[in-house]
Design a protein that fits this description.
- It comes from Polystyrenella longa.
- The chain is α/β, with parallel strands linked by helices and 471 residues long.
- The protein has one domain: Alkaline Phosphatase, subunit A, CATH 3.40.720.10.
- 32% of the residues lie in helices and 17% in strands.
- The strands form 5 sheets. An 8-stranded mixed β-sheet has the order 7-6-8-1-9-12-5-13. A 3-stranded antiparallel β-sheet has the order 2-10-11, with no helix packed on it.
- A hairpin with a 3-residue loop joins strand 10 and strand 11.
- The longest helix is centred in the C-terminal third of the chain and has 25 residues.
- The protein is globular.
- It starts with 7 loop residues before the first helix and ends in a 14-residue tail after the last strand.
Amino acid sequence: MTDPIFSRRQLLQTASSGFGMLALSSLMSDQSYAGTLAPEPHFPAKAKNVILCYMSGGASHIDTFDPKPLLKEMHGKPMPVKVERTQFNNNGNIFGSPFDFKQYGESGLPVSSLFPHVAESIDDIAVVRSMTSAVNEHAQGNFFFHTGFPFIGHASAGAWINYGLGTENQELPGYVVLKSGPSGTPHGGVGLWSSGYLPAQHQASQMTIDNAEPIRNINAQERDDVQRKRLAFIQDLDQEFLQSTRNDAQVEAAVRNYETAYRMQTAVPEICNLEGETKSTLDMYGFNAQNPMTRHYGRQCLLARKLVEQGVRFVELTCLPQNDGDGQVANPWDQHGDLKTGHSMMSEQVDQPIGGLLKDLKARGLLKDTIVIWAGEFGRTPFSQGSNGRDHNPFGFSVWMAGGGFKGGTTYGATDEFGYHAVEDKSTVYDLWATVLHQLGLDHEKLTYRYGGRDVRLTDVHGNVLHDILA
């Protein structure tokens, strides 16, 4: 007898179009449903993976990668141009950078004294000096950078890339966010790493890599044979439930996540095991640094390398608070006061590890396939605030990309002589992600998902590929 609600024909149709039942049947085998792994890109790719070093809080571009000598010349004088409304608006006079710049590499690009280790790889880095944001508040700015929209509910760039390309390793998720020590979640919360309306298996998996359990409950609480029997029983129940939902996308995603979680029990501890790394490699990442925050961030950078080696598509790193314990956990680069001390402490945390990551990726031949992004939600103002701090500046700031077919030793766009507004080749986060997707072999206008009656994109209805910074 045919069930009028769920016919045999419907069962065959949904089973042929979904992966949930096949994922369940392979839960304890070495086989994996090929449809979830590495779909073909739209065109030949120049890169395969992305590592995002996110500077939450908003690092100052005019104190890092966009020198403005005029600020030192006019230090202490009133701003001669209109001051836009930003976050707090209790703004002072022009604030010349307390950091010196010098030229590095064959390209001679200037980098401040905050980033001497990163500067050693400047010939592999393309600096966009004309980035802008639509918002000037942390949570909204974080959402805007990650998803292209200034509010919760949309899919993050990592989820879109995971959706577009799949994973190259069935034992690891395609999108991972790394934490270590006291690192926190940027303002906006875990929604920054959400899959939004995309299938749930594309959301980020968080790993706190210096914990006994990098992922909560990753260690099996029972013998392997007992676990296998329990999973076999659950498999039968889930198959029945999946059929009853007609292969509902959310249920299928949960099944896929369940399968990945089982396989991760072996893969994650192996990834976090650093016994195979040489002392010179560990030192390059800052494991020998006196600052514990440098050591924590260095571990994130090293694990990011290991994850992309294993085929993880997108890895995001999270900053830690300042070393003195007084820094903000969610937005540690946010120096509204005493910028010199705060930025010095934050750069000490991330400079050597990121510099080590760039060198290590290049030495292993991985940099050509991996895009490393350094960015925050906005820059900072050229005038002072509070006790020698800077306010938020979404009108013009810097981000940079290295590897993955980007043209190293180059700059794109420019801010005005004060570093206040982007005035040449003004860029947006939509352009950034359109360019990153392009290097991954994805056309940002074709990478869509049907939701709410329209084809939604990471770049919404915007975005242009920045061909000038591509090799």
